[in-house]
Design a protein that fits this description.
This protein is an alpha/beta fold. The protein folds into three domains: 38 residues; 206 residues, P-loop containing nucleotide triphosphate hydrolases (Rossmann fold, 3-Layer(aba) Sandwich), CATH 3.40.50.300; 173 residues, Ribosomal Protein S5, domain 2, CATH 3.30.230.10. It is 26% helix and 27% strand. A nine-stranded mixed sheet has the order 8-7-9-10-6-11-12-13-14, with helices on both faces. It has a seven-stranded mixed sheet with strand order 17-18-16-15-19-22-23. Strands 2-1-3 form a three-stranded antiparallel sheet, with no helix packed on it. The N and C termini lie far apart (81 Å). It binds thymidine-5'-diphosphate and magnesium ion. Magnesium ion binds next to helix 2.
């Protein structure tokens, strides 16, 4: 008989404790502890044999295309057999839609088992009609019990399994409710073993609440091979699928989609899209180049600098790190001599994108300076580079890739760190290398 143990677990972060607590010591959430029963799995097992690295024969896992190029890209070039992929995001952002669309390609492999714990087969059918998906190989299973799902997979022998969503699945072995940390972890682990044993891909869909801290998908991140998160504003039609973790490809790779009448449409050239509404001759706007995974993306940075009417000036950052803005404002103040201390400053990355790269520092600085001086920046310019505390412009990675993307979209003058200077014979582009922010600003506002 396996030993059972009662423990209490925080539903917000997964912290466990032998007794009930009012406040979680880990994530400070109040009243988040729920009693969970854990079956102790401490059984004696034969230890694994050590192997020399040289003796291991290399097998590059087979990859299959989902027929959605942007999804394949975020997966690292297609789905790997036996891999477990978690797709997370806010409710209603498009997780069920993208997975259903990908089944068009994946159902060519053989039977696909679509476990739907949230929608009835009729609802899924209705959606599939809208997305023009017809395949005899897609089998719907309106089931929420883990044991039920496992017994059906033994009968159907699917080549792909989709679980939508993991929050609705429960195992009878555990007394806690579906969606609790214990249930999610237990169900995902059992499903993962199933996928690995049969060498088939498993897609797990998980909801993430607004603050992004919900235990559900977070506790799964280390169990699964690939984690894809949907980003985007529900008000805007654009959706970004970002690989946060990928054992079979590069992380941070993104896919860009547009939600349309008949499902998610791929956006082939996101740079064009993000720049499509860039105004001309308006102060406070410049184009910079960010690298998302392996893909260069041109984005417009906007800034608005106004005299503050309160004692403490406001600083607002959308799409970039707030502390980074404060740092860059301090550099402008001290090294360039701009008096921004009594100014409200708003910075925004257009298109709902979130960028964590210091390469866009120079873009932020240029946008703030442009708004402060009330002088627009010529539309042929783009800029990138990391700003250091002494006001120096530091080199960044993969400058060539970024410059080429800017040249492709018709930009003709680039202000870049002097150590990133390159010449391009085949493009009509002038690259200006500068050492400091001050120098860059002199060129931009001569
Ligand atoms: P859905 O995939 O159900 O979200 P999730 O599974 O992440 O909760 O997406 C639902 C939203 O997408 C809903 O608001 C309607 C919209 N939508 C479209 O605009 N066009 C479509 O073709 C489909 C299927 C959905
Ligand atoms: Mg859904």
């Amino acid at each position: 008989m396996p030993r059972t143990k009662i423990l209490f677990q925080c539903q917000s972060c997964g912290y466990s404790s032998p007794k009930w607590l009012g406040k979680c010591p880990d994530c400070s959430e109040w009243n988040s502890f729920v009693e969970e029963e854990r079956v102790s799995k401490l059984k004696t097992r034969k230890a694994a044999e050590p192997v020399s690295l040289a003796d291991i024969t290399h097998t590059e896992g087979d990859r299959y295309s989902t027929d959605i190029h942007e999804l394949d890209r975020t997966l690292g070039g297609g789905v790997v057999m036996g891999s477990v992929v978690l797709i997370g995001g806010d409710p209603g952002i498009g997780k069920s839609t993208i997975i259903l669309q990908s089944l068009k390609g994946l159902s060519r492999l053989g039977h696909v088992l679509y476990v739907s714990g949230e929608e009835s087969p009729e609802q899924v059918k209705l959606r599939a009609e809208r997305l023009h998906i017809r395949s005899d190989n897609i089998i719907l299973l309106p089931e929420t019990s883990l044991e039920g799902i496992i017994s059906v997979t033994q009968k159907v022998k699917p080549r792909v399994i989709v679980v939508d969503s993991i929050q609705t699945i429960f195992s009878v072995d555990l007394p806690s409710a579906p969606g609790s940390v214990g249930q999610i972890r237990e169900c995902a682990t059992k499903l993962m073993f199933l996928a690995k044993k049969q060498n088939i891909p498993l897609f797990i869909i998980g909801h993430v609440t607004k603050d992004g801290a919900i235990a559900g998908p977070k506790v799964l991140e280390h169990i699964v091979d690939t984690v894809l998160y949907f980003e985007g504003d529900k008000g805007s039609p654009f959706r970004i699928l970002r690989a946060v973790k990928n054992r079979f490809g590069s992380a941070n790779e993104i896919g860009v989609f547009e939600m349309a009448e008949s499902g998610l449409k791929e956006v082939d050239n996101p740079s064009e899209l993000f720049l499509s509404e860039k105004p001309d001759n308006v102060p406070g706007s410049i184009v910079t180049v960010s690298l998302e995974g392996t893909r260069p993306l041109l984005v417009e940075i906007q800034a608005l600098v106004t005299a503050s009417s309160f004692g403490v000036p406001r600083r607002t950052a959308i799409g970039v790190d707030y502390n980074r803005i404060n740092l860059l404002v301090a550099v402008l103040e001290k090294r360039v001599g701009m008096h921004l201390g009594s100014m409200d400053i708003y910075v925004n990355v257009v298109g709902g994108l979130r960028i964590d790269e210091p390469a866009i520092d120079m873009g932020i600085v240029a946008a703030i300076a442009s708004s402060f001086k009330n002088q627009s920046i010529n539309r042929e310019f783009f800029t990138f580079g990391e700003v250091g505390l002494s006001g120096e412009l530091r080199a960044i990675s993969q400058a060539g890739v970024r410059i080429r993307e800017a040249a492709k979209l018709g930009f003709t003058r680039g202000i870049v760190p002097v150590n990133n200077m390159q010449t391009f014979d085949n493009y009509n582009i002038e690259i200006i290398g500068v050492k400091s922010v001050e120098e860059a600003i002199e060129i931009l506002f001569f």
